[in-house]
Specification:
It holds the Pfam family PAS_7. By secondary structure, the chain is of the alpha+beta class. It has 29 helices and 33 strands.
């Protein structure tokens, strides 16, 4: 119940207005209407300015994007131009031959035609056609300048007429030099406008947008949408003039092409005398504003009507609600979540609510209106609250008598009360008392989670970056800092085999060991997953620190009864030696970590400059691999699988080959992992499956075809459907298809793996387990999973005749397979002794160079016709790596 004193001012406060003037309501309505109109006008103007600013910024960004793209295009063209010129200079005697034309045509592609002129200006060869058309430009001023001006920048384009077709075009011109360094000819490359127009048309800028290319002196090169009649005209004295001669500019102009008012942005290329101009019509840019204006006006009208309705209703109901106001106010105050107290100017209590009593544990009959501050403090002491806390609060209250203030009181029982004091007109003040214990705990938890890893208690990535930035800023001349990127090797296997709870225990244990390994000035963070980072200012002792970390991580961990012996790969980058910025130093450490993992894991590597080169080379190979996959630039070879008892060819394994036009043979060991990393392995694997089945359908009915399947490809739930569709398209019976999987696949998500294997078996497809014995071999999954064939790894076959242990292992594998009615096949058989011993041990099939390397489909077809397959031997050796 609300407790109220008898103060007259308080009664007036609670009673509410008794005579409200209608004129006052009308005046209020007029003022509110005016305010709504002003706000509406301001919002409309602000919206218009914002949209125009955004349009100008978008146009500037588009111009910058196009300029950068064109810069890269011209840089590539200059490199290609220099390479072509060098080739022509070295083979100049052949320049007028068909061979020279072929060279120029191959280099030209779709990036512009090459024209080769002799020193007299006669066209002696061209990529356009053979023989070259008769063209003579020796008397042209441009040609004389090209052949004689040694100061001319040959990397810059010139906007001239095409020497063959006569139309205006951008041209790259390179002077050719003979053995005596004298000019021997001119190589000109005309750059088609379509090269720029295709890029411009691919940008989604709206129907009213235009993109134009000018030279820096204002001559139009091309425009999209096309405006062919103006190409070659100069617009330096038009409204476009402010856009020329600056690196970046924007301007509102009247278009010289269509006369419309437009917003234009221009960007000059960094190394070419070319300006990119992007524009939109003012009406098109403001189309969105008109819609926003309609919405703003609608909202304003609705607001004005609502205000009018409220004021009208207020005038009707204000007297009716006077009586209810005090009761409702009393109920509201008494049911507040906060405690409430109100004091008059002399500091005496006027009212309080029930929540106030509950917060402080005060009896209702003891707290009465009229009590002074010291009397209330005495009651709080009697209730058992800390007297020192009460005195501290009193000093706070006296210090902040005439201003709004807050005070947090932390009680002995762990609660925190936020006391807020607000002065009121006429003297006195109101105080709210709110228990914020849970809020403070939640805020503390949020702050902790924002900066620390919840599992390990280590700083998280955000805190790590902040710390590293501060550490780099604090480096003095002569100081060095080391950043160690740590990746726990084979952690995923622990998660998949033992479960995520065990993986979490392992991560917590690893974090504890890392803390104990570093010094007091070092910093340890968890970046996510199984990645950690260490920052140490003692860079001179980084090798000793790495050794300490490796010893700690290689020692066994007991996680809920599971003994685990992990290891780690570590990449190290030094500052300022390798980088001085956060992102750059992290990138260098990440490259070093990648190098450590690539070299077999369980080791560490410092960053080396050639790691950047390798990363770029990997990126280039990835680009070429994407092109090769898109163009299906691969071949399938087939290696026979021979029955050891009959000598007949039982089937063949399909092996992927990539013959790059420049790199030559690219090993699958190089491009298959890359295809998995960049998401191409599924498309590549489907192509291999389709081609292999299409070839195998033409073999004898008894022969099977084996196709390797990537774990990424296999894990897709749709994989069995794709296999069935491939078999239906090619007409290959399902029992003639073998899909080869690895042991590692069986360790990951075994339930879904088993489901997919069973679906494939239901189709009639056979499953082969590849490279058995080299991974995490387990007899349990030989029993659990539907496997038809076990392929014995080449490493056992190589030592078969030298080590008794290998023979024992092979015999055991054969016996286990026989017990489960599974076929065994030995890989990499190269000698007759190995073949004979495998036959004695009971192995059923073999493959290897003793019989035949992998062959193209046509060569295999000839081999299949031989009667005694076992007597054939391969006269040459070639790398054998399967996909």
């Amino acid at each position: 119940m609300l407790r109220v004193g008898r103060d007259a001012g308080l009664r007036s406060l609670l009673s509410g207005p008794r005579n409200v003037s209608v004129r006052g309501i009308v005046v209020s309505g007029v003022l509110l209407g005016a305010a709504i109109a002003l706000v509406t006008g301001w919002m409309a103007a602000d919206s218009r300015d914002r949209i125009l600013r955004n349009t100008e910024r978008e146009l500037r960004n588009t111009a910058l994007l196009l300029a950068r793209q064109f810069d890269r295009t011209f840089e590539a063209l200059n490199i290609d131009q220099s390479e072509t010129a060098s080739s022509v200079e070295h083979t100049f005697p052949l320049a007028q031959t068909l061979t020279g034309h072929t060279l120029l045509a191959l280099k030209a592609a779709e990036l512009g035609e090459f024209d080769l002129f002799d020193i007299d200006g006669a066209l002696i060869n061209s990529s356009r056609s053979w023989p070259a058309p008769r063209v003579q430009i020796g008397s042209a001023p441009n040609f004389r300048r090209w052949s004689s001006d040694v100061e001319r920048d040959e990397n810059q384009t010139e906007f001239v007429r095409d020497p063959v077709l006569g139309n205006w075009t951008l041209t790259l011109v390179k002077r050719l030099r003979g053995p005596t360094k004298q000019t021997s000819g001119i190589l000109a490359r005309t750059i088609p406008n379509a090269l720029f127009e295709n890029l411009a048309s691919s940008l989604m800028l709206g129907q009213d947008a235009t993109i134009a290319i000018f030279t820096t002196d204002g001559t139009l090169v091309t425009r999209w949408p096309r405006f062919s009649s103006s190409i070659g005209e100069n617009y330096l004295n038009s409204d476009l003039k402010p856009l020329f001669g600056q690196t970046s500019a924007s301007q509102r102009i009247v278009s010289p092409f269509d006369g419309s008012e437009r917003i234009a942005a221009a960007r000059t290329l960094s190394k070419q005398p070319i300006v990119v101009v992007v524009s939109r019509s003012l009406n098109g840019a403001l189309a969105t504003w008109w819609r926003e204006l309609s919405a703003i006006v609608s909202v304003a009208l609705a607001t004005a009507l609502a205000v009018a309705g409220v004021l009208f209703q207020l005038g009707r109901n204000i007297i009716r609600h006077q009586t209810d106001l005090r009761q409702r106010y009393s109920i509201a105050v008494d049911n507040m979540a906060q405690g409430l107290t109100l004091f008059d100017a002399s500091g005496r209590l006027l009212l309080h609510n029930r929540r106030y009593l509950e917060i402080y544990g005060l009896p209702a009959d003891a707290v009465k209106p009229g009590l002074t501050g010291p009397e209330i403090v005495a009651l709080l002491k009697q209730a058992g609250h800390d007297p020192h806390l009460m005195q501290e609060y009193r000093r706070f209250a006296v210090k902040n008598v005439h201003r709004r203030s807050s005070f947090e009181a932390e009680f002995a029982d762990g609660r925190t009360i936020l006391i807020t004091r607000e002065p009121i007109q006429g003297g006195g003040w109101v105080m709210t008392h709110e228990e914020i214990t849970e809020r403070k705990r939640a805020n503390s938890r949020i702050h902790y989670l924002a900066h620390y890893d919840d599992l390990t208690g280590l700083p998280n990535r955000s805190s790590f970056r902040a710390y590293l930035g501060a550490a780099l800023d604090a480096i003095e001349p002569g100081d060095r800092l080391a950043l160690l990127y740590i990746d726990i090797d084979e952690f995923k296997i622990v998660n998949d085999t033992l479960g995520h709870p065990i993986g979490d225990l392992l991560l917590k244990s690893i974090a504890d060991r890392l803390r104990h390994c570093v010094g007091p000035n070092d910093y340890v963070a968890r970046l996510g997953g199984d990645e950690f980072a260490v920052v140490t200012t003692d860079a001179g002792a980084v090798r000793e620190l790495v050794a300490t970390l490796q010893r700690a991580l290689r020692d066994t961990f007991d996680c809920a009864g599971h003994v685990i012996s992990p290891d780690a790969s570590i990449g190290i980058a030094l500052a300022p030696d390798h980088a001085g910025e956060v992102d750059e130093l992290i990138a260098k450490a990440d490259l070093a970590l990648y190098a450590a993992k690539s070299e077999g894991r369980h080791t560490y590597r410092f960053f080396l400059p050639d790691m950047d080169i390798k990363a770029k080379a990997r990126h280039e190979l990835a680009t070429e691999l994407r092109r090769a996959v898109a163009e299906q630039d691969f071949q399938l070879h087939f290696q026979p699988l021979v029955d050891l008892n009959s000598g007949a060819i039982a089937g063949c394994e399909a092996l992927l080959r990539w013959q790059h036009p420049l790199r030559g043979f690219v090993s699958p060991a190089e491009f298959v992992p890359l295809a998995e990393d960049i998401g191409l392995i599924e498309e590549l694997g489907e192509w291999v499956l389709e081609q292999a089945c299409g070839v195998a359908v033409g073999w004898p009915a008894a022969m099977t075809v084996a196709v390797n399947v990537s774990p990424i490809q296999f894990r897709r739930a749709t994989f069995p459907l794709k296999v069935a569709a491939t078999l239906a398209r090619t007409g290959l019976p399902a029992h003639r298809l073998e899909l080869e999987i690895t042991e590692a696949l069986l360790l990951q998500d075994t339930e879904s793996t088993l489901a997919i294997l069973n679906q494939l078996r239901d189709l009639g497809v056979k499953i082969a387990l590849d490279d058995f014995g080299t991974g995490y071999s387990s007899l349990s999954y030989l029993h659990r999973f539907p496997i038809d064939k076990i392929k014995i790894d080449k490493s056992f076959v190589d030592t078969l005749s030298n080590e008794t242990g290998s023979a024992t292992i092979v015999r055991a594998i054969v016996q286990i397979a026989a017990a489960g009615n599974k076929t065994t096949l030995a890989e990499g058989v190269e000698t007759a002794a190995q073949r004979d011993l495998l036959r004695q041990l009971g192995c059923q099939q073999m493959q290897g160079y003793l019989f035949s390397p992998a062959l193209p489909a046509d060569a295999l077809a000839r081999l299949i016709g031989d009667e005694d397959a076992e007597t054939q031997t391969a006269p040459r050796r070639a790398p054998l790596i399967s996909v």
